[in-house]
User: Which sequence fits this backbone?
């Protein structure tokens, strides 16, 4: 988790030009960090490449829009890192 | 190239879906009102149209690869290099390679060559979305078919 968080935070800081110190595990990528959809596309691409996965952003957004899951489940950094770890584990299974 | 209709690709010459690659032909017209302004007495193809030709080539690659299930819209020109001027009447070879297909987006690399020499390159990013209507999808499919995409 800590390793994933460091990698994701480095990506967000670099892509979105956000001070790395502002990125905390509890940070919400949209509400707190103000990452817009185009920057999020770049972040997603960088995460996909870094971890060799495909973040299912469209399915996540559908889940949120249909009220199945709270947005925080995916878009708070520590939770996003958990989802990434799950995808990486599933890839290796 | 039907430059005034913003249709910059003349034909698909090679499509290798398993390799995620497409090569198209795009011949710059001899005359266009665009060249009257860009530039008077010194007509050259605008660089943004060279980038657009790589974007359209990438679009055909993505459409053919996804079976016309989703429409790619240009979202970001990450890098672009315009290496040489292109005069009216020039026959260009435009290639696009799929770099990555993500959830709701895709990344491609475009390249324009003239007689094997690189004219322009770009890394492009697209949002891929469901077609807004079946009619729009049919139009895109017909257009691609006319260009040689099967």
Assistant:
């Amino acid at each position: 988790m800590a390793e994933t968080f460091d990698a994701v935070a480095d990506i967000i800081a670099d892509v979105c030009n956000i001070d790395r110190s502002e990125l905390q595990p509890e940070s919400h990528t949209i509400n707190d960090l103000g990452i817009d959809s185009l920057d999020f596309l770049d972040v997603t691409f960088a995460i996909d490449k870094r971890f060799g996965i495909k973040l299912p952003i469209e399915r996540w957004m559908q889940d949120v829009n249909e009220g199945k899951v709270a947005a925080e489940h995916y878009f708070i950094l520590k939770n996003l890192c958990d989802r990434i770890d799950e995808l990486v584990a599933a890839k290796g299974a | 190239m039907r430059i005034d209709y913003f249709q910059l690709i003349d034909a698909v010459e090679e499509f290798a879906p398993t390799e995620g690659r497409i090569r198209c032909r795009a011949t710059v017209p001899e005359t266009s009102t665009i060249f009257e302004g860009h530039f008077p007495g010194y007509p050259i193809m605008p660089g943004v149209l060279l980038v657009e030709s790589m974007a359209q080539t990438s679009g055909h690659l993505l459409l053919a690869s996804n079976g016309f299930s989703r429409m790619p819209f240009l979202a970001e020109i990450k890098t672009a290099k315009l290496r040489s001027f292109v005069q009216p009447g020039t026959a260009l070879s435009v290639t696009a390679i799929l770099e990555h297909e993500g959830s709701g987006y895709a990344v491609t690399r475009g390249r324009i060559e003239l007689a094997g020499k690189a004219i322009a390159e770009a890394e492009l990013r697209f949002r891929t979305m469901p077609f807004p209507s079946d009619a729009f999808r049919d139009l895109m499919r017909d257009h691609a078919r006319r260009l040689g995409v099967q």
Summary: Chain A has a mean pLDDT of 94.
